[in-house]
Structure formats: structure tokens, C-alpha cells
Design brief:
The complex is a heterodimer. Chain A is mostly helical. Chain A starts with 15 loop residues before the first helix and ends with a helix. In chain A, 54% of the residues lie in helices and 0% in strands. In chain A, helix 5 runs antiparallel to helix 6. In chain B, 38% of the residues lie in helices and 17% in strands. Chain B has 24 helices and 32 strands. In chain B, the strands form eleven sheets. In chain B, strands 11-1-15-25-26 form a five-stranded mixed sheet. In chain B, a hairpin with a 5-residue loop joins strand 16 and strand 17. In chain B, helix 16 packs across helix 21.
Chain lengths: 182, 779
């Protein structure tokens, strides 16, 4: 039984005969007593079904472009730029690693929303960790949220420094997102 | 005579017939009435019985090794959660603390993603860092521990009945035993009414000379509370009895008991009625039912008899006597041993001295939450469906913001001869990367739920708008760099109306030609207006929209000096985009919404928009950092830790009516506004007013230094700070400035330039010191 106070249990007709007997007796007494008060207001009497439809995740409508800014770097452009020696970002702490593991598992079992939630938790702990931003971008790409995927990958690029692997991962995401968006 | 007999017979027959008719009518009416009551009882019992207010929670505190957290902060969090301080923490919701070590048992809690189990944890501190986090029993390391979230408010229905539903299976059996012993010990044996019990109760009450036991069964009490008005009359008593029988006919004992446990009235706080044991437990003891002991149960059961008469806060002596009577009754009943009763009787009442108010301690933030919810949910659902709302509020940061605003406001009033109580303010703190609103204060009295200045005070922003002017320029590297010389000499602007406007600097001086970065750092007005007119006011407004301003404003030259009215919230959204490196993140107060059963309903997930070229933002933020190191906000360095790098902008409006500071560290954005509701002058500039509050907030908040990765298309070039020509390190005014590739000056200063093969030129920089350069230079 789950939450009997929410989902009502079926009534059992245990002693209707006794009730009937009572009814007759009562009819007479009622006439003597004259008045009665019954409160029915206070709470809705009808059980309502599911109250709220699942809402789509909040998204931001893009502002009209001013045309004065350059778009996020395109893969072919940045690939030709000279880069300094690879430089990995500092290893994340165990809390972040645990959340990343969790996100990977959720993602593998197809629970992409849960994976994204775990990654967002990780970002609260390590907001400048470019790897986490990139993983979130990958999840959004899988979910078909191409604009988000591209923005998140750009954010990751912004923090990636000289981490070539990561830059390439992000370029790939942006590339795929842009192509699928069209 | 002969006529008389038939007449008499006739009359008798009539009387008999009438009597029979009356009997039949009565019977039918009675049956109809019982049927009516039956329907009433069933519809309400089987329908949605209670309108449940939505519960609003703060962010859960997540603990992990190495996090910045002081023992005091953990202590405050546990206190807000109602954890009991004990000798030996062995059950959920208990803790023990020594100087640098905490042992505690967390409560199990169901979140959007997972259900957190209860854990026995040991946390060791090293100063203001959580140095280690381990299982209390085994000593093995714990990666991450999420505490249960603090309840920060509820959204109540109109009739103000409040309750926290409990299921029978989660109610401690001892509470049920105590309740039945006192109220209805034959509960499982009667059929709704119990005459024998009535007599026994009468007898024991006479013996004890007090109302120790009640005569009505629990079922009758439930019927009374559930369906009937509180008037005392024979007919009501009768209805109560019939309804009790109907309830018993339809439902099991356990269903009736569970309904009783949730329905019964157990206290009052202002207009809010406390119903059910689930809420009463929090109301009197600040903890869930499962964490209570025998003596607490006895007190709650006493309250079922007369919640106001035995109110432990108003009549502690009376409540104690009654509680002990309940314990005696339970012992006499065999429910507990005499020793247990004696031990429990020795304990104090144990109620929390502070009444947990139904009114949220964070009215401004709750207002924000409500507004966000109202766009997605119907009011009725919010007040009746028992939704669980998980918000972003960080009660620790909120406390420091409230403290900073209150303390500084009082101090500034004295210092600047502002009539006491006249200086008002508002402040917001957000996470600079994900846009979560961590703290919001809508006025000096943070507890007062009234005008929410954080959202609704529309005030001219003054110089806070300048970054939008400079960003518009810096996004055109072919035309503008940080080293572009701007003319700060006298300027007349002719307005469409024919009037001319002559902007003045705050110091009423002209500064000749000034490098762009210095004009922003020192907040020069004239050069800013010139720059804004050159790039175009409509383009500046476009930049503002890209930064996150949604409302439209007409493009006047005066807009360039902030003659537009914005709320602190709107300002925060704009600076959020700068703080996150040019990525616009909508500010959010809600993370997710769960149904009353803990099923996920909706998630407000992180969403970002890449709105600017990171290189332009990088240049702008470099100049905004200079505001703090060497510009109008340099006084804040006395308040901040030496190694904390921050950036921001002061704002002051005409006659010092508004004092603003908007700024950010690597982790937090904070915006503070000070001013008067009657719009009189305060004499405060952005630096002498709002900046002080801002400094207090940043000092009290564990935060990370500002740190931007140098974009690939940005290079550092050494120039002469005055002539903005290429220079050598040895030159007297040499400074290094970031330039978008190819935009650096080409003229070489008289002092000479080592050239592009100078080893000191354009060295790759690590993230750590790329933003320290200003501090080095101006030290």
C-alpha cells in the first residue's frame, strides 16, 4: 500500500445491516432533534488527477543578434591555430569523480536527465572544470538539445586552456550540434 | 350512539394510519439521512482529504573533503535543520561537536535524483576547510554527503490549515500506543462507539479529578474533526456517532487511525492551525516524529486533548503535569514499565523556545520563488498539492548578506547623517557560473515581508551601465582596444529636442586624453559619453540585451550614463553574463519540483547562451578588475583578503540618491543597492555606501578568486601607460595590456621597444597570474 492518504483504499462493506437498522432508529430521533450541521467544505471533495503536466525544461529564447560579435570558434578555424604544449586541468576531487561516475552510469542506462543532474551537481563543486561542462554538452547533444550542446561546449572551450583532447571533444560537439541544428 | 362507534373506530384508524405513515416517513427520512451522511463521509475520506501547502526547501548542503566550510557554518546548518546535540550521536538527526570535529547521523531524504540514506559521519576541520569526511564506524573516506535540506517556507492555502502528512508505517509504534492508552484503549475492539469506555473514562476522571481520559472513541473524534462544526449540541453528538459507525463500516482500523493522526488539531501559531502529529513534531520539537522519545510522545498526546489549554510554550507547568499524567496512564496500562515512566517524567518538556514560524524567514527569496512558480503552476496547486520545491537558497550566505546590510546601513546612517531608519537597501548573491540565486535581501529588515526592493525597486543605475558601453567598443578590435585614447575634454551633446547636454565628471574636472581602460576604471563620464556616441547608443542597448536585460529602453545619450531605471535583479542578470565569461545564464531560484510523494515533476536545468566573443569579455573584465585594484572601488581592498581577486563597478546617481556596487569573484556575483524609498539624497556614492556592504559580503563568503583563461586570440603587449605606444619593461610607465591579436598599437615609444622577439613579450601565461598583472603594476 502506497500512501493510503493519497490513494484512497476501497471501502469495505462490513456491516451494512447494522447501518440500516440504525437508519430507522435515527429517522425518529432526528425529527426530535430537529437540526443538524454537516461540514463538507474546507477541502475539495473530488480527488483530482495528476495536477500538472510535465513541463519542458526551461530554455532561454535567444536575443536578437547584434551582428557585431563573432560566433563560437569553428573547428577548422581553431584547428589551424598554433597551440602551446598540452596542459591538463588539475585533477578533480573525489566528490566530483563520484558524481562523474554516477553521470556516466546514468547516461549508459539511458537516464540522460539524471546524468545531466549529476553533472550539474558536479559543476556546483567545480564550476571551472572544463571537462564537466563538456560532458554536460555531450548529454545535451544526445538529448537533441543542439543549441544547449553548442553553448555548453563553447563554455568548456572557454575554460579548457591548452587541453587539446578536451578542445577536440568540444569542437566535435559543436560541429555535430551545428550540423544537426540545420 | 350507533353512529358514534364507527366514528370512534374511524378516528382510531386514522390515528393509527397517521402513526404508521409517520413511522414510514421517519424510516425513509432516516435512511435517506444516513445515506446522505454515508456519502459525505465517503467522498471526503476517499477524496483528497487535505489541502497540503507546497513545501519550499533551501539548497541541501553537500559535504566533501577539502571544501571551504568552517565548523561554525556546519554548526549553523545543523541547528537550522533541528539536529539534536547529544553525547553519543546514534540516531538520525543527532550530532556531537568538539572544537574541530563533528560526529553526526544524517537523515534519510528523497531528492530529485536519488534517495540519500541515513549515514553516520565524522567530519574533521582544519581552520575553515573541511579536512576529512569519513564513515563514523569504519573510518573509511566518504566522497560526498548530502544533508537534508532546510525547510524555508510553505505556500499556504487560504484557510491556513497546515500539516505534514505521515503514514502509519512511519509513525513510531510508541506514539500510537501512548495515544490509544489515553484516548481510546479499546480502539481495536469497538465498532466506532464504545459505551463501556465512556463509563470507564467518566469513572477515572472522577477519581483523578481531571480529564485524564476521554469518552469518545478515536473514530468519533475523527468524525467530529473531519466533518462537523465545533458547536456543542446533542444533534452534533448524534451525527458524530453515526458518522463514526459509518467510518468503521467502510474502513479498516489502520486507515482510520492514520487519518486521525493527520487530522487532529495540535496547535496554533497566529492564523496558522497546526494539524496532525507530523507537523506538531516539527512545531514543538523542531525534528521529525521518528526522532522523538517517549516524553515527547506523551506531550503530543496531551495536546490532542486540548492544544491551547496544554500549550507547552504558554502553560509549561500545566503541560508538564498533563504529560506526566499521560505517562502514568500509559504505565498503568502496561504500555511501559513504571521505571520508564519515572525516567521520562524527570525530563524537561524539551520544546524549542523559538516557535517555528509559518512565515518564511526569507520573505524576499520566497517572493521570488512564488513568482517563478506562478508562471508554471496554478495557485490552487501550489497551496493544495503538497508539492516539494527545491530552491537554490544558501542560508549561510543569506545570513551574511542580511548581517552585512543591516549592520552597514546603521553605521552609514550615523556616518552620513541620514535620519535613522531611512536608509534602505537590497542585495543579491548568485553563483557566477550556473546562475543560481544564493541569497536575496529585499530590505534592511530582512524578516519583513513587504516591498521587495531586490525585485521591484526600479532605480537609475548610473555608472553600472558603463561596462555595456565599453564592451560594445571592445567587441570592435579594429577600432577599439584597452589602450585606445579617449577624449575626456568638454563635450556638448545636442538632444533631438534642441537642448544641449554637457555631461560632467564626478570630480568636475576634465582629464584630457585617457586610455580606455583607465576611463572605465576611474568611471569618467565625458569620455564614456563620447565613446558611447561613437559606437552608437542603440548598439549599447543591444549589448545590454545580449547581457540579459529584457526590457526595452529608448536610446538617449543620457542612457550612456545610466539614466535608466533597473531593479537590483536586472543588474545582477547583466553582471552575471560578464562574470561567467560572456555566457548568459538565466538567474534561477528553483532547481526542481517534486510531488508530495517524491516523484519528479519538473526540473529547471542549467541552460546557457554563448552571447559574446570571450576575447572582448576578457578585455572588459581586465578593466573591471582595475576598478578594484586602482579605480573607484580600490577602498574595498581594505575589507577583502589580500589574495582575493575580484572585479566590479561602482554606480552613483545624481545628488547621491542611489549607491550601487555590482561585482564578482570567480565564484559569486553580488549586487548591492542603497538608497531611500522617498528618493532623497543619501550623500553616499557607490564606493562609500554599497561597496562597503559588498566588501562585507565577499569577506564573509568562502569564494574563489577571479580567474579567466586567456583566450587564444588574446596577447599581452607591453606599452607605455600614458602614450600607449609600444614600450620596454625598463620604461618608466610600462604596463602590459591584453589585446585581441593584431589590435595592439604599432608606434614605438621614445623609450624604445624591444620588439616582437623580446623574450618578455607575449609570454604564455598560466591562468593563475594572468589576472594578477594589474596588482603587480599598480602596487
Amino acid at each position: 500500500m502506497i500512501h493510503s492518504f493519497i490513494r484512497p483504499a476501497a471501502p469495505r462493506y462490513r456491516s451494512y445491516s447494522r447501518l440500516l437498522l440504525l437508519a430507522g432508529l435515527l429517522g425518529i430521533m432526528m425529527q426530535l432533534a430537529g437540526c443538524y450541521t454537516v461540514r463538507t467544505s474546507g477541502a475539495p471533495t473530488q480527488q483530482r488527477g495528476v495536477i500538472i503536466e510535465q513541463q519542458p525544461p526551461v530554455t532561454v529564447t535567444p536575443y536578437p543578434s547584434t551582428g557585431s560579435r563573432s560566433p563560437a570558434r569553428l573547428p577548422e578555424e581553431s584547428a589551424t591555430l598554433p597551440r602551446a604544449a598540452p596542459q591538463k586541468s588539475a585533477p578533480p576531487n573525489t566528490a566530483v569523480l563520484a558524481l562523474l561516475d554516477n553521470a556516466t552510469q546514468q547516461s549508459r542506462s539511458g537516464k540522460l536527465d539524471a546524468a545531466a543532474a549529476a553533472l550539474e551537481r558536479a559543476l556546483r563543486i567545480a564550476p571551472r572544470n572544463a571537462d564537466i561542462w563538456s560532458r554536460l554538452a555531450a548529454v545535451r547533444l544526445q538529448q537533441g538539445q543542439f543549441e544547449q550542446a553548442a553553448s555548453l561546449a563553447a563554455k568548456s572551450m572557454n575554460l579548457a586552456g591548452n587541453d587539446i583532447d578536451l578542445i577536440e571533444r568540444n569542437e566535435e560537439i559543436i560541429d555535430k550540434a551545428k550540423r544537426r541544428q540545420k | 350512539m350507533s353512529q358514534k362507534t364507527p366514528h370512534t373506530n374511524h378516528g382510531l384508524r386514522w390515528i393509527l394510519a397517521l402513526l404508521a405513515l409517520a413511522l414510514i416517513t421517519s424510516l425513509i427520512a432516516g435512511m435517506a439521512y444516513v445515506a446522505y451522511l454515508d456519502k459525505t463521509v465517503r467522498t471526503q475520506f476517499e477524496g483528497k482529504r487535505w489541502a497540503l501547502p507546497a513545501r519550499v526547501y533551501a539548497r541541501p548542503l553537500e559535504l566533501f573533503q577539502g571544501m571551504p566550510l568552517s565548523p561554525g557554518q556546519l554548526s549553523a546548518e545543523l541547528a537550522d535543520l533541528g539536529y539534536a546535540r547529544v553525547e553519543k550521536p546514534d540516531s538520525p538527526g543527532t550530532y556531537k561537536d568538539t572544537k574541530d570535529e563533528f560526529s553526526f547521523v544524517t537523515r534519510a531524504f528523497r531528492f530529485w535524483d536519488t534517495a540519500e540514506p541515513s549515514l553516520a559521519v565524522r567530519a574533521q576541520f582544519n581552520g575553515k576547510t573541511l579536512a576529512s569526511l569519513t564513515h563514523a564506524a569504519t573510518g573509511s573516506a566518504l566522497d560526498l554527503v548530502r544533508l537534508d535540506p532546510i525547510l524555508i517556507g510553505s505556500i499556504y492555502p487560504a484557510h491556513n490549515e497546515d500539516r505534514v502528512l505521515v503514514q502509519l508505517k512511519e509513525v513510531p509504534p510508541l506514539l500510537v500506543k501512548t495515544l490509544l492508552a489515553v484516548e481510546d484503549h479499546r480502539f481495536y475492539r469497538h465498532h466506532g462507539i464504545d459505551p463501556a469506555s465512556l463509563l470507564r473514562a467518566l469513572w477515572s476522571n472522577v477519581r483523578a479529578r481531571a480529564a485524564v481520559q476521554g469518552g469518545s472513541t478515536l473514530t468519533q473524534q475523527l468524525a467530529k474533526n473531519f466533518y462537523l462544526t465545533p458547536e456543542r449540541s446533542l444533534s452534533r453528538k448524534l451525527n458524530e456517532a453515526i458518522m463514526a459507525l459509518i467510518l468503521e463500516a467502510h474502513y479498516s482500523k489502520n486507515e482510520i487511525l492514520e487519518a486521525y493522526l493527520n487530522e487532529i488539531f495540535l496547535g496554533q501559531e497566529g492564523a496558522r492551525a497546526i494539524h496532525g502529529f507530523g507537523l506538531a513534531s516539527y512545531f514543538y520539537f523542531g525534528r521529525p516524529l521518528t526522532e522523538l522519545k517517549l516524553q515527547h510522545f506523551a506531550l503530543l498526546v496531551s495536546l490532542a486533548r486540548g492544544a491551547s489549554y496544554y500549550d507547552p510554550r504558554r502553560h509549561p507547568a500545566r503541560a508538564l503535569t498533563q504529560r506526566n499524567r499521560v505517562l502514568d496512564t500509559l504505565a498503568a496500562n502496561g504500555g511501559i514499565s513504571a521505571e520508564q515512566a519515572a525516567a521520562a517524567k524527570k525530563t524537561p518538556l524539551g520544546v524549542t523556545p523559538k516557535i517555528p514560524s509559518g512565515i518564511s524567514p526569507y520573505p524576499a527569496f520566497m517572493d521570488m520563488v512564488r513568482r517563478q512558480l506562478q508562471s508554471d503552476y496554478k495557485e490552487d496547486d501550489l497551496t493544495s498539492e503538497g508539492l516539494q520545491i527545491f530552491t537554490t537558497l544558501d542560508p549561510r550566505i543569506q545570513a551574511s548578506v542580511e548581517g552585512a546590510l543591516t549592520t552597514r546601513a546603521t553605521q552609514l546612517e550615523k556616518q552620513f547623517n541620514i535620519p535613522a531608519g531611512k536608509l534602505e537597501g537590497a542585495a543579491l548573491v548568485t553563483d557566477s557560473q550556473n546562475g543560481e540565486i544564493l541569497a536575496m535581501v529585499g530590505g534592511r529588515d530582512a524578516r519583513f515581508s513587504g516591498f521587495n526592493r531586490a525585485l521591484d525597486a526600479m532605480r537609475p543605475v548610473g555608472s553600472l551601465i558603463k561596462p555595456a558601453v565599453y564592451l560594445t567598443a571592445l567587441a570592435q578590435p579594429q577600432n577599439y582596444t584597452l589602450a585606445t585614447l579617449l577624449d575626456d575634454g568638454p563635450l556638448s551633446v545636442s538632444n533631438p529636442g534642441g537642448k544641449t547636454w554637457q555631461p560632467k565628471n564626478y570630480d568636475h574636472k576634465y582629464h584630457g586624453f585617457v586610455p580606455l581602460h583607465a576611463a572605465l576604471a576611474h568611471s569618467y563620464n565625458i569620455s564614456t559619453v563620447r565613446l558611447g556616441l561613437a559606437v552608437g547608443v542603440p548598439n549599447v542597448l543591444n549589448t545590454l540585451h545580449s547581457l540579459g536585460l529584457t526590457r526595452k529602453f529608448p536610446a538617449y545619450p543620457s542612457t550612456l550614463l545610466g539614466a535608466i531605471d533597473l531593479s537590483p535583479m536586472e543588474v545582477t542578470q547583466i553582471y552575471q553574463t560578464l562574470a561567467s565569461g560572456g555566457f548568459r545564464v538565466p538567474l534561477r531560484a528553483i532547481r526542481d519540483v517534486l510531488t508530495t510523494k517524491g516523484e519528479p515533476l519538473q526540473r529547471y536545468s542549467l541552460s546557457i547562451v554563448s552571447a559574446f566573443d570571450p576575447a572582448a569579455i576578457y578585455l572588459l573584465n581586465t578593466a573591471l578588475q582595475e576598478v578594484v585594484t586602482n579605480g573607484t572601488a580600490s577602498s574595498v581592498n581594505r575589507q577583502l583578503p589580500k589574495d582575493l581577486i575580484v572585479a566590479g563597478k561602482t554606480g552613483t546617481t545624481d545628488d547621491a540618491r542611489d549607491s550601487w556596487f555590482a561585482g564578482f569573484s570567480g565564484q559569486h556575483v553580488a549586487v548591492v543597492w542603497l538608497g531611500r524609498d522617498d528618493n532623497q539624497s543619501t550623500g553616499l556614492t557607490g564606493a562609500t555606501g554599497a561597496l562597503k556592504v559588498w566588501g562585507d559580503i565577499m569577506r564573509a563568503t568562502p569564494t574563489q578568486s577571479l580567474q579567466f583563461t586567456q583566450p587564444e586570440n588574446v596577447e599581452f603587449v607591453r606599452i607605455d601607460g600614458q602614450t600607449v605606444q609600444l614600450a620596454r619593461a625598463e620604461c618608466p610607465n610600462a604596463v602590459q595590456l591584453p589585446f585581441i591579436n593584431g589590435s595592439a598599437p604599432r608606434e614605438v615609444s621614445a623609450c624604445g621597444y624591444a620588439g616582437y622577439d623580446d623574450p618578455r613579450y607575449n609570454q604564455p601565461r598560466s591562468d593563475e597570474n594572468s589576472l594578477n598583472w594589474l596588482k603587480e603594476i599598480f602596487r
